[in-house]
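Summary for the steering committee. One of the milestones for this cycle was to obtain a three-dimensional model of the protein with manganese (II) ion bound, which we needed before selecting residues for the alanine scan. The sequence and ligand used are listed below.
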Amino acid sequence: MDAIAKAEKIVITTHRSPDGDALGSSLALYHFLKRRNKTVKIIVPNSFPYFLKWMPGVREVEIYEYNPSAAQHILKHADLIFSLDYNISKRVGDMGPFLDKSPARKILIDHHLLPGENFDITVSHPEISSTSELLFRLFYQAGRYEELTQAEAECIYCGMMTDTGSFTYNSNDPEVFEIISLLLRKNINKDAIYSQVFDNYSEERFRLLGFTLSQRMEVYPELHSALLYLSKEDQAQFRFSKGDTEGFVNYPLSIKGIFFSTFIREDEDLVKLSFRSQKSFPCNEFAADFFNGGGHLNASGGEFYGSFEEAIHVFKEGLKSYEEKLKNVANNL
Ligand code: 5GP
Ligand code: MN
């Protein structure tokens, strides 16, 4: 709070391909700082999915990729920069070096493992299921709950909801539900928030899901694993729009006996991978070992610079080398 009081020009940043938690925490903090009459900007590396465009304040969000030089100027002249929902500046892509270079004080608020070192203040809690929840806890502990607005509560709720799969994983802490109850007291409509995010998909997205599950899924029962994959061509066929494949990676986990799921998607100039697991299988280790990635124990991601086919090959080889570990996890060893 002291760092905030001293700052005038504040910038909030979050990770590439912002999700509900990245935007939710950024916007909640944005509104909170705006109420303190600060000059605040949110800069995100690239665009975000259409089903997050209802969020209060979302039109104020600046997208680095659309106007890099303007964003670089803002970063350079900021007094204070918040890094929300990511641990190292590599996660903000091309914007990273300008963030590192800025003379501003830097505050990290995040829930990923292994926070980087170039922050003046680091609030890193990997045991907390979302950055939005962590931000709420900080507001609450600073005695600011009473002043929180409905808009701030909506943003925080959205982040908590999306990072826990609508409270189906990482959400056994009773305090999560105490926080939800405190947010509901701010008059939020949690059912409407759910609907805005999950009942707003395009018809193409739904058909793409059907196609992926029926034509682009491989299941390896003996390895308790499954793979989904989509080439650029597949995506074009269904007029892919950003965010359309959000959540696909979770579906194979519903198959009995499957606790490791991977989704490989050919992107513009790279191949993007998403990993999800259940039980103690560390998909962040798998992501780090083969795809220069990381994340949480049960939800991680990575990138591959090479062809789509090569990425699938590397994945399959990686899976073989994890055979013993997968079997041990299945047997609770
Ligand atoms: P998603 O599959 O939803 O894109 O990402 C799931 C989680 O994996 C994110 O919360 C993030 O922590 C992590 N993650 C995604 N992509 C990457 C990546 O390229 N590198 C690292 N280190 N983590 C990632
Ligand atoms: Mn998050």
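Key point for the committee: The chain has two domains: 2-198, 203-330.
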